Amino acid sequence: MAEAATLHHFAFDPSSRAARLALGEVRLAFTETAVRPWEPDSPIHALTPSGLPPVLELTCSGRPLILRGVAAILGFADDTASGGLLPGDAADRGEARRLVSWFERPFNDDVNAVLLHERMEKPLLRLGSPDARHLREGREALRRHLGLLEPLAAEREWLAGRRLSQADLVAAAHLSVFDYFGEAPWAAFPSLKTWYMKIKCRPCFRPLLGDRFPGVPPSAVYADLDF
């Protein structure tokens, strides 16, 4: 049994959001410690060689554990959940893992590294105003990826199949950041919008709705469960 769990995270880091959603979904009680990983003296650097959140510190059956990175935290949450966060069907399980990997690499490289860099990292690191060309490229990349997700949301109850899985939590974690900044073109992807409203209504999502980015208010629909 897990006890005395502390999650070190940055509120607008998609991986940190995925960890918060997963722990909330399996109802594992934890306290949150906000970190600023771009600062040289951030305590996150003492917890993980990468210097990146999320990191979960906990005691499990009397044994102290430090889980570094979202994959380890998702795996732990899956192991502690009564029904798990991966489907029972092998094909659906493989599809859930495929989608998680999609967000970890191509989505992160094509979209986050461009659009979140301009909207989030530049203000935090004081690197100047967003570049219009890069914003356009990031928005186009986001639309391409959402276009690939739209038929999955249209054909399935959840992204990987018949039940909610890690894929939904990871996808929602990433897309919720763009939703905050008003960069999610929901009107162009109605099935994906319906899926997002469904996961947005889950109790695990509520803490994310209270997040605020310095100097940038949330979009008009960010906290709206039925937009």
Strand content: 5-15%
In helices, the fraction of residues equals: 40-55%
CA-atom Rg in angstroms: 17 Å
Which stretches of 5+ consecutive residues score pLDDT under 50? none
Distance separating the two termini? 39 Å
Let me know the largest β-sheet. Answer: 4 strands, mixed
Described by the principal axes of the CA atoms, the overall outline is globular
Protein model, in words:
By secondary structure, the chain is α+β, with helices and mostly antiparallel strands. The chain folds into two domains: 2-80, Glutaredoxin (3-Layer(aba) Sandwich); 90-203, Glutathione S-transferase Yfyf (Class Pi), Chain A, domain 2 (Up-down Bundle), CATH 1.20.1050.10. Helices cover 52% and strands 11% of the residues. It has helices at 14-25, 44-47, 70-80, 90-125, 132-155, 166-180, 190-200, 206-209, and strands spanning 2-9, 31-34, 55-60, 63-68. The protein has a four-stranded mixed β-sheet, with helices on one face. Helix 1 (14-25) links the parallel strand 1 and strand 2 (31-34). Helix 1 (14-25) crosses helix 6 (166-180). The longest helix has 36 residues, at 90-125. It starts with a strand and ends in an 18-residue tail after the last helix. The model has no long low-confidence stretch (mean pLDDT 95).
